[in-house]
Specification:
The complex is a heterodimer. Chain A is 44% helix and 24% strand. By secondary structure, chain A is an alpha+beta fold. In chain A, helix 16 runs antiparallel to helix 17. The radius of gyration of chain B is 27 Å and the shape is flat. By secondary structure, chain B is of the alpha+beta class. Chain B has two domains: 65 residues; 95 residues, PH-domain like. In chain B, strand 2 and strand 3 form a beta hairpin. Classes of the chains: A alpha+beta, B alpha+beta.
Chain lengths: 526, 199
């Protein structure tokens, strides 16, 4: 049934928007496979919490048959459920809305107006590649969980459907001028304008600087809790290891230090390798294209994925440079959308462009003229915030040290001197970090946008266009009022952004520019 | 008699008034200094009663716990109890004072709300960014004919403006006004679009 559809909309697209699809359509039976696989995958990816249970089961000698039986029952249940889902699932595309019907006992019908679609994701898992099938995920504003998911659609048909769903919402002047070109698919391909591609080397670089230990902590945490450390330390192998270390290093401290630093570096390289592999598998070959008024990102080795995002939905552009990326002078760009409607479904990530050189930024945003009238590039410098921010915080880390010293001097409590020293060193370190953080705080004011600069080890630039601001909040304490300072909070659909301790005049200026842009006339901003 | 004499006495300091330069746009009253309307007088009262009951209950429980269970000397116990009572009274007083600071203003293009005792925050939400408006009334608020008005924009699940203690009539009026403004703004967009398509 689905095999016939791709040609039809191609020819009839402009005459009557998709005459055939106005009837209720069922999905292909392959969607059962898709449903079972996604359920299994979500069970496994969320299942690292089950690792201790399996480990306990393994040590308690639960027979293999139980496990096989359990797995069989699980898959059987999932398949039955998926079968019912497939039988009951219907969708249709009307002129300006998508209807989806599903459910056995509780029938649920969603009517999605096309201009409310936030983004459309095209996924092709590895088991669908040989079948030339794909999954379309349609996300709308407001419902972050129950988005429509059209699985096991013919890949070409999915592309056509995606274009329909996305293009119909842009019946503006621009697209009506282009209409005569759209009649043949060959020419409509010319409408696709490449924005940027990332080579394998750049993705490796991205994986290298983006890697972090958090993933390790998440995986290792439950396992480490299960290991009986005392037994390991007392075991013969560990004792042998210690004697071997002492022997080979001749018990010299320097050599031991070198050994441990070497081990640390080896561990770090291992994590980097994992991160690099993950980055390449997920993004290679990375291409970002502009197709009419949408941005489309595609890539992925095992599971091919294509994200589409309407350009007008982009709220804040976030430039992030982690510590390692500063060495190679690369930035990661995040195109922030409405909160709760991020492109990546599970990790809640925004669409990103990895490993961008500073001089590439202007080229990337040049075709996206609707984001800004003026060219977008990283500001050269920024206005610092008031030093009062630092004065307000710098004494806080000394509280434990002072309290401990006072107690040690005035009361007969037995307080270790080493503890006081540790408290002092910790306070000094926190002070230094606070100072670095203060130095990184700043803003850069433009005619149509304000930039926020922040960071500790890494650097963040966030570009906040005035036309996307939803509310402005100015907060002052009595002390700040006397010093003519204020916090300003700029509320956006992607989350609020705060500039602390800036001059009240600047805060009023930012508020005035924001209101002059957004208050006089209504313009769709999300 | 005296008045007439005064009229003819010439005082160089008061007879001529210097108007000075006209104010620049930057010197006009900023958002944080705008004069706003206070909410219903019953709201601070209600907050005072609620806070009074809740915090005195908590304080009583802690005092009973200290008085009967903890192994301390009588003086230490008394000192602690007095301290806790003072803290409770202070919290109740601050809740009341904070409720007194809530005020709002309906302007041509924005709804502005100000509140806060130590951190005085002024929030402005333009009608063009208003997604939906919500009126709610708890059981205690019903006794005093009070209503809470919430204004939402996109993105965060929280209300951008959470304005409690409005008189029920005012709130309904305000809600209608806000909805009208939002609808008006959005329909004006369609006019612009059809105009551009026609031309």
């Amino acid at each position: 049934m689905n095999d016939l559809q791709p040609q039809e909309p191609d020819t009839q697209k402009n005459a009557i928007p998709c005459a055939l699809l106005t009837d209720w359509q069922a999905l292909s039976p392959w969607s059962i496979l898709s449903f079972v696989m996604t359920s299994l995958r979500s069970i496994f990816t969320n299942g690292y919490a089950l690792v201790p249970i399996f480990y306990a089961g393994w040590t308690n000698d639960i027979s293999l048959f139980w496990i096989i039986d359990g797995a069989a029952i699980l898959i059987g249940l999932l398949t039955t459920f998926a079968f019912i889902q497939w039988r009951k699932f219907r969708y249709r595309v009307k002129v300006n809305q998508l209807d989806v019907k599903r459910g056995l006992f509780f029938t649920k019908k969603d009517e999605i107006p096309l201009n409310r679609i936030q983004n459309i994701r095209f996924e092709q898992p590895f088991y669908f590649k040989p079948l030339n099938l794909a999954v379309l995920v349609i996300e709308t504003a407001g419902s972050s969980k129950d988005e429509a998911r059209l699985s096991a659609i013919n890949a070409q048909h999915a592309h056509v459907l995606k274009q329909q769903l996305l293009q119909l919402q842009h019946e503006d002047v621009e697209s009506s001028q282009l209409k005569q070109n759209e009649n043949t698919p060959h020419q409509s391909l010319a409408l696709t304008q490449p924005i940027i591609t990332r080579s394998l080397k750049e993705l490796i670089l991205f994986g290298f600087y983006q890697n972090n230990f958090i993933w390790f902590a998440i995986i290792a945490g439950p396992i480490a809790g299960q290991i009986e450390w005392e037994k390991i330390v007392q075991s013969a192998l560990f004792q042998q290891l210690i004697t071997w270390v002492n022997h080979t290093t001749h018990e010299s401290f320097i050599l031991q230090l070198v050994l441990f630093v070497g081990l640390f570096i080896a561990g770090y390289v291992l994590f980097s390798a994992i991160s690099i592999i993950a980055s390449v598998l997920k993004y290679y070959p990375y291409t970002l294209d502009k197709r009419q008024q949408t941005l489309q990102r595609s890539g992925g080795i095992i599971a091919h994925q294509q994200d589409a995002l309407a350009i007008k939905r982009i709220q804040v552009i976030h430039f992030h440079q982690p510590l390692l990326a500063r060495v190679v002078n690369r930035w990661t760009l995040y195109l922030k959308q409405v909160k709760g409607n991020e492109v990546e479904e599970k990790t809640k990530q925004h669409m990103l462009i990895p490993a961008v050189k500073p001089n590439e930024i202007e080229q990337i945003f040049h075709p996206l003229s609707s984001l800004s009238q003026t060219p977008i590039r990283l500001p050269e410098g920024y206005m610092p915030i008031n030093i009062a921010w630092l004065y307000k915080r710098i004494w806080l880390p000394f509280i434990p040290f002072t309290a401990l010293s006072v107690l040690a001097l005035l009361t007969p409590l037995p307080i270790d001197k080493a503890l006081i020293e540790v408290a002092l060193v910790a306070a000094l370190i926190v002070c230094a970090l606070l100072f670095v953080r203060f130095k990184r705080w700043g803003y850069f004011l433009q005619h149509d946008a304000v930039w926020q600069h922040s960071g500790l080890f890494g650097k963040h630039w966030k570009r906040i266009p005035f036309e996307k601001i939803q509310h402005v909040k100015i907060i002052q304490t009595h002390a700040q009022k006397k010093k003519q300072l204020a916090y300003i909070e700029l509320g956006l659909a992607s989350g609020a952004i705060v500039l602390p301790y800036i001059a009240i005049d600047t805060a009023n200026l930012i508020a005035a520019r924001a209101f002059n842009t957004i208050s006089p006339h209504y313009k769709q901003w999300i | 008699m005296n008045d007439i004499e005064h009229q003819h006495q010439s005082l160089p300091n008061t007879d001529i008034y210097q108007y000075g330069e006209p104010l620049q746009a930057q010197q006009l009253t900023p958002m944080t200094e705008l004069v706003l309307t206070h909410i219903d007088d019953n709201y601070p009262k209600l907050q005072l009663y609620v806070a009074g009951v809740v915090y005195s209950l908590i304080a009583t429980i802690i005092c009973l716990f200290i008085g009967f269970i903890t192994p301390l000397s009588i003086t230490a116990k008394l000192l602690l109890i007095v301290f806790i009572l003072i803290v409770a009274v202070l919290i109740i007083r601050l809740t009341y004072l904070k409720a007194l600071t809530v005020c709002y203003g309906v302007f041509k293009d924005e709804l502005i709300m100000r509140q806060g005792l130590f951190w005085m925050s002024t929030t402005a939400l333009p009608y063009t960014r208003l997604q939906h408006v919500n009126l709610s009334q708890g059981p205690l608020e019903r006794q005093y004919q009070l209503v809470t008005l919430k204004c939402f924009s996109a993105g965060s699940g929280e209300a951008e403006i959470n304005l409690p203690g409005l008189n029920a009539d005012t709130a309904e009026h305000l809600r209608q006004h806000l909805l009208y403004q939002a609808a008006e703004n959005q329909s004006s967009e369609h006019k612009v679009i059809t105009a551009s398509l026609d031309s």
